[in-house]
Every structure is written in structure tokens, then in C-alpha cells.
Specification:
The complex is a heterodimer of chains A (140) and B (111).
Chain A: E1 4-12, H1 18-31, H2 39-61, E2 69-77, E3 80-87, H3 111-118, E4 121-127, E5 130-138
Antiparallel strand pairs in A: 1-2, 2-3, 3-5, 4-5
Helix pairs in contact in A: 1-2, 2-3
Chain B: E1 3-8, E2 11-16, E3 20-21, H1 26-38, E4 43-47, E5 53-54, H2 56-71, E6 75-79, H3 83-91, E7 100-101, H4 104-109
Parallel strand pairs in B: 2-4, 3-5, 4-6, 6-7
Antiparallel strand pairs in B: 1-2
Helix pairs in contact in B: 1-2
The chains are: A alpha+beta (140), B alpha/beta (111).
Amino acid sequence: MEEKIEVDIRVPNQTRYLSLIGKIGEDMARTLKRYRGDREELAYHINLVLTEAMANVIVHANQSDPEREVHITIAIVEGVLTIRVFDEGCGFVPCLDDTLDNGNLREHGRGVYIIRSLMDSVTYQRLDGGHVLEMIKLLN
Amino acid sequence: MQLQIEEKAKVVLIAIKENRLDAHNSGELKSQLLALFEQGKNNLLIDLQEVRFVDSSGLGALVSGFKNASARSGSLKLCGLQPQVKSMFELTRLHRVFEIFASEQDALTSF
């Protein structure tokens, strides 16, 4: 039977939950039955993209409002990792800062660059009442 | 954020006693570094030995410290990077910006 893992998590819109979500992503990478690459590197990368995506949503899209919620789904199905991070806010512009050409000494703007470097596909779409950032990586 | 701050001759050694340096605690690191600059401490060595995970906010706090130190004719250097943390500096090309040392001793003698 093809391995299929899906988790669906909702947490308050607060950065204190970044570590929890990152750890769940790491543990999923370590649990995979078949993965030929460097498992610890994959675990770190999943932790990182989850952290970057959630931090963007918490601070920019949901404007640091602690009453809002962040909804995350992580699925690994047939060797494809799909992470979706849903916000309830006005959105952010994930396409503006995906290069480092504008000077390497800026303090912000590396998050989306990191996500785009580590994932195979990144899209951001409008939904009813918010947006979804979808990040896909082929694992095999 | 847990930091261990120690003065070693003209250098202030800051050991970050956290597993993660991310958007949750990087603002605190930035403020602590600013407080040191305000006290006239412009040569800082940050020991990242205990940090297993760093995100773009953590890198941003270190860049902020680097720029402040340079603007005050001092310097901010790093030591004790774990392999995954080092790979973050390489991914974002910040390894070309910071002076990164394997050991605290090598870093201290470089000031």
C-alpha cells in the first residue's frame, strides 16, 4: 500500500506555536517509510519552510492579531509533500522578495527566498475569507 | 531568551542558550545586542553552539547586529555553528558577510 500521511492543525496566530508546528513537520520526515535522501536534511527543511510560511502569515497576513487562527495542512502522498498554510487576513506579497539581488545586508525578506529555494512549487491564492500558501516538494 | 554574556578582554562573548532562533525570539536578541551597543560594547562574538535551528528572522537579527557593530567601527563575529545552521548562512549567502569561526578561541584571537 502506498504510504499516505496527512495532518491538519489549527493554532492561535502567535509565534510561540512555530516550534510545535516545525517539530511536527520534522517528525513526519523522520517517520517516512521510503526516502532515499538525507532524512535529517529533509526534516530540517520541512521545519524551516513551515516556520517561514507561518511567521509570514502570523505577522503580515493576520497582522499579529492573537485572536486569529492559522490553519496548516501537511500531506505526504505518493512521494509528494504538500504543505498548505491558510490565513484569515489581508494577505501578503510572496513574490516580491524571492531574490537576494537587492543587497545582502537587509534584515528582512529572506523568508520567501528560502521557501522558493527549498520547494519545487510555491503558489499563493485567494480564498473566501483569506488566502492559502501552497508549497509542494517531490520527495523521490 | 536565554543568553550567557561574558566579557573577554575587549570582546563581549554572547552564548545563545536556545535550541531555536526564530521569529518568536529573534526580536529579543536584536534588543539585547542594541543594549550592548548603547553601552559602547562594539566587538561582539556570538556563540551559536546550542542553536540547532535558525530561520530568516534569526538571520535578520544577526545582520542587524553586524550592521550596528560595523557602523560603530567594531565587529560582530560568529562561532560554533552546527552544520544545518551553517547551511542556512550558505543558502542565503550570508557566509560571505560574517566572519565565521569553528572555535571560540580562534574567534577571540581574531579581534
